[in-house]
Amino acid sequence: MSSSQPSVSIVVPVRNEADNIAPLIEEITAALDGRWAYEIIYVNDGSTDATGDRLAAMMKQRGNLRQLRHAKSAGQSAAVRSGVRAARGTIVATLDGDGQNNPAFLPDLIAAVEKGVNVGLAAGQRVGRKDTGFKKFQSRVANKVRNAILKDGTRDTGCGLKAFRREVFLMMPYFDGLHRFLPALMRREGFDIAYVDVIDRPRHSGVSNYGFFDRLWIGIMDLAGVWWLIRRKKPTPEVTEVNA
Question: Of the residues 22, 45, 91, 115, which has the fewest C-beta atoms closer than 10 A?
């Protein structure tokens, strides 16, 4: 694999997903090879299984695969941020490491950002979710509450499949749960959102390792904080440099 400067970085946060490592990497490469110069950054969020070893073995085969490791689990938002900060591509795409997000949709998301005149974020919107009825009910409630307050026009912020401009992501104030408020915060910065329907599927193996309630209920304090940020946003001044 080429080690040249990538234009796209794929960030995958994982915790204890050893059995899902190889199948997902194969799918990512099948979707992207020959289309962009890209790198894959796995953020190993304090895994206690063989996730690190599996990644190390794969790295010997793929020169564009990188592994970052958190000494202790810091959560999905922190893992995404670590990956974005380390990314070398101008466009970053994310997906969950459990296999439920199909990498076949990555090209559509990346292209939507790359070709969009003012698109800061392309967000996957799940169709045919492979969760229990209770989980889907909780997500519907959470999305309706968030949308009613923030008016971000997004029916599904919990989908891990997203693509965005790295520099814009790093401009945003960081907090735990940031990745679930990206549409609202992108609009706050004056960027448009592109939406791509994606087909959900069952995870390859194992069980969910990230916060059950964090995934399903919007934190009241976070919601209030993002609402405050949007309300306090001033128009971005038009700046020109005056030369002598």
Answer: 115
Residues facing 44 on adjacent strands: 14, 69
Q: Which amino acid is at 15?
A: R
What span, in angstroms and rounded, lies between the C-alpha atoms of 110 and 91? Answer: 7
Residue bearing tokens 């070709």? 115
CA distance 97 to 102: 10
Q: What is the mean pLDDT of the segment spanning 177-203?
A: 87
Cβ–Cβ under 8 Å, residues 92 and 172: no
pLDDT at 4: 76
Residues 6+ apart with CB under 8 A from 244: none
| Residue for token pair 């087909």 | 199
